[in-house]
Amino acid sequence: MCRGTDNQQKGSSDDNDDITIRHYKNEDQDQVHELFQAGMMSLVPNLFWKSVLSPVFVVVTAVAAMLVLHVSLSLLYTILAIFGMMAILYSISYHAFYGYVQGSIKDDLSKIQEVYIQPGGCFLVAVDSKNGNIVGCVAGEKKGDHKYELRRMSVSKQIQGRGLAKRLIRRLEQECGKKGMLFLTTSYVQYAAIGLYKKHGFQLKKTITYEEGMFRFLSTFELYYFEKELK
Ligand SMILES: CC(C)(COP(=O)(O)OP(=O)(O)OC[C@H]1O[C@@H](n2cnc3c(N)ncnc32)[C@H](O)[C@@H]1OP(=O)(O)O)[C@@H](O)C(=O)NCCC(=O)NCCS
User: What is the model's pTM?
Assistant: First the structure.
């Protein structure tokens, strides 16, 4: 059950700027969608570079380049073929995340009250009091007695690295109560998120290969499952 007051974080030791964490309101929906989309789409280059260096892509591209060279005897066409393969891979990476964002908006981010709040979880937003913009969000979806899934964590690029995600996690833990379990899934290209969760006491429990949507066209896409006992 959600606990705490809307401005509980104000005045706490890490309340070092003009950003206030409060509960989601229906009028926040569009900004939350934009924030979540921006956060996910910022990961496209990570996925692209990880995939470019994968053995499958290297081998397929080398074979394609040799074929083009063999047929055309042109270095220029061969280089163009390599760039073409990279462009296709970038497009797959882009559409993989884009499809994921659209699915997330359809499945839960367009019904935050129904999915998160009414069943006893919570959805928090961080608001920049200078302009009222939403610059961070996180959800705790109730998954059982004292068991919550941390989802939809995103912080605006302009203020990343200033401790907002850390504050969102602390506040979410207060909302979930003192005893219980928080778990989450993130992916192998979310370097900042992995660093964040490891630093904040989450333990990596398992790795899962994800093969849905455009992700199945990548040689591997690994998901990391983390848990944290709340004491
Ligand atoms: C992950 C994300 C929420 C972190 O937000 P943030 O406000 O910048 O994070 P914080 O400033 O609170 O950082 C807290 C800790 O996270 C880790 N961290 C943050 N950015 C990191 C990075 N780029 N690389 C490695 N670790 C990082 C650090 O351990 C940091 O603690 P420290 O500064 O004391 O070393 C943000 O980068 C983001 O929105 N990314 C895109 C969306 C996403 O991946 N969301 C997670 C979904 S599971």
Answer: 0.89
